[in-house]
Amino acid sequence: MLTQTTTRVLEPSDLGAALAILESEPVANAFVTSRVQVAGLDPWRLGGEMWGWYADGRLRSLCYSGANLVPICAGPEAVRAFADRARRAGRRCSSIVGPAEPTTQLWRLLEPSWGPAREVRGNQPLMVTESLSVDVTPDPLVRRIRKDETEILMPACVAMFTEEVGISPLAGDGGLLYQARVAELIGTGRSFARIDDGKVVFKAEIGAATAQACQIQGVWVAPEHRGKGLSETGMAAVLRYALADVAPVVSLYVNDYNTPARKAYRRVGFREVGAFMSVLF
Predict the structure, then answer these.
(1) CB 63 within 8 A of CB 70
(2) Cβ distance 22 to 32 under 8 Å?
(3) Going by fewer Cβ within 10 Å, which terminus of the chain is more open, N or C?
(4) pLDDT tens-place string over residues 91-124
(5) Distance in angstroms (rounded) separating the CA atoms of residues 233 and 142
(6) What is the spatial distance between Cα 254 and Cα 262, in angstroms, rounded to a whole number?
(7) Can you name the residues that pair with 192 across neighbouring β-strands?
(8) 3-state DSSP helix/strand/coil percent for the chain, to nearest 5?
(9) Helix residue spans in 166-229 (DSSP H)
(10) How far apart are CA 237 and CA 1, in angstroms?
(11) DSSP SS3 for 88
(12) H-type helices in 59-141, by residue range?
């Protein structure tokens, strides 16, 4: 018997079924799950469409199509269906990101029409922890950032983004969307930093948060302070906040070539459990 499959844009009434899939892999899906839990499936509020792949009338896989294209719990058939839809729509995202296996397949199918990419990061280890390491003492000077400190934090955020992604977040719209995102993280108490003499020396954010898992992002140490262990003690401090206030599992993903960062994260207590992939345009 042939399996009947179809793909369509999900509607608000599909929220329960979509969340069931998202929450089946709470760590890998934390970014998209956190957005859907807040915004639902309305494209305007969500910032993009959620595509659903159905097999025999049952929702089996998702793909978020917004500023990022993100395959979710997607096997080979679903990936092919999502690639067909993305190809027909044309590229509107700035990156493709997700678990390495489906993202690799998705990019292989899209590259002939969407390529070349500015950069492909094929192996970004996904790391998790459920506890603080006893080997690293959290930096007591790392704390939540207040709203009135946004202008102090912003240059560090811009420097981190530019260093990590290769382009400035201030390009295009003058940084309005990026500044709004930074302000949102500060306003929700998920932006952390150590500020010495009015300058940020370490920063990180909890960029995605659900009741099951959260994800640390934007880890940055000022260049003149690197090599002093601030990434380890700073991360330990953020991890302490995350485990106490946000979720029982904390994750992050890191570029495989960033050996110092991977070593620091392991010292803090993270372990590698999988891999992500990012395609940057």
Answers:
(1) yes
(2) yes
(3) N
(4) 999 999 999 999 999 999 999 999 999 999 999 9
(5) 9
(6) 7
(7) 144, 204
(8) 40, 30, 30
(9) 171-174, 176-187
(10) 55
(11) helix
(12) 76-89, 100-114
